[in-house]
Amino acid sequence: MIKYHLAEDTIGKDDIRKLIGWLKKTPRLTKGKLTLEFEAGWSRWVGRKYSVFCNSGSSANLLMYYALLRSGRLKNKKVVVPSVGWVTSVAPALQFGFEPIMCEADPDTFGLDLDHLERILKKHRPSAVLMVQVLGVPHKMKRLLALKKKYGFALMEDACAAVGATVGSKNVGSFGEMSSFSFYFGHQFSTIEGGMVSTDDRELFSMLLMLRSHGWSKDVPRDVHNRLVREHGVDDFHSPFVFYEPGFNVRSTDLNAFIGLEQLKKLPSIIAARRRNHAIYLGELGDRFYVQRPEPGDKTCSISFGLLANSKDQRRRIVKALVDHGIETRIFSAGNLGLHPFWYERYGKGSFPFADRIHHFGFFLPNNPSLTAERVRWISGVVKKAAL
Predict the structure, then answer these.
(1) What burial class does residue 163 get, using C-beta atoms within 10 Å of its C-beta: 0-12 exposed, 13-18 middle, 19+ buried?
(2) pLDDT tens digits for 107-128?
(3) Which ranges in the chain are annotated with CATH 3.90.1150.10?
(4) CATH 3.40.640.10: which residues of the chain?
(5) CATH 3.40.640.10 matches 13-258
(6) Residue 1: what pLDDT?
(7) What's the rounded Cα separation, in Å, for the pair 379 and 11?
(8) Which of 189, 190, 116, 199 is nearest to 155 (CA)?
(9) pTM for the structure as a whole
(10) Exposed, middle or buried, 169 (CB in 10 Å: 0-12/13-18/19+)?
């Protein structure tokens, strides 16, 4: 029986009571004004000009890739993708006919290895790079942005599992052309299902809005809509239902946005609890296991605490002890994505020394706001005892 889950729902009883009260007023449930309010609130919080709410973090990544592709800004279809992340950080590159080039993992943050990235940039001159803020541990953004300036690629920042992490004084998700976030149950906070794409670029914002909803212009800023009508000679009568892009339907709803607005109010306390737990784990286990390390001055906000065992056998012993004590665990993210069938059946195995180590030795410990400091220390003790 699991006593300590990797994730606990951040939607509490008070949130449910407020939702019930709102539902009794028979409001509009599909996408409407609350979605716009949530998007605006999120933009203010993260430090971006524009945000587009969708039905998942995976859809947010899908929209980022396709908006960049349809923008006409890319000199080629080569894109660098991470070896450590989630399948839907990489899958849109395959789905949209990009030429993905996989990058080794950084030994400190587990994000893109920037030495390997620069070798790729010199050799292949890709138009775009997708990076992941792995597990809420911020990456080395100063050097990454210097590479962006030097080689001129478009940067997509996957911050799906990193809400609340900061690089200096800036929230993760405020870098690059676009950034994605996930509000899934297991992440920093939840809208049941949900995701967001944020950007400072008005043209990309308009493209994202069209792609989110069928490819029509009903949601874009009025001046953009009017320009499209003029450019394409559209009859006014037909204009609301003209499709300018081959879009999707990955909208969320006002019901999810209502929950999101309430979650935003709780976000400071959620972040504080996750940071406290992460710091305790680091103090208890950081000297005995290989763990992620952010740059000095950057702050982590993890969804789980990740660490690497010293061997496969040690990981098996620790995992057994965790299960025996009712502590949920799992492999580190998806391990090395280059070792999964979706990748190697197309490109051959993407084996990299450090990403492989994460794949074979990595595992997660619970970190969620429901855990007390005492419980985190007890879980750490189970790990240390089993590791002997």
Answers:
(1) buried
(2) 999 999 999 999 999 999 999 9
(3) 268-387
(4) 13-258
(5) yes
(6) 81
(7) 24
(8) 199
(9) 0.96
(10) exposed
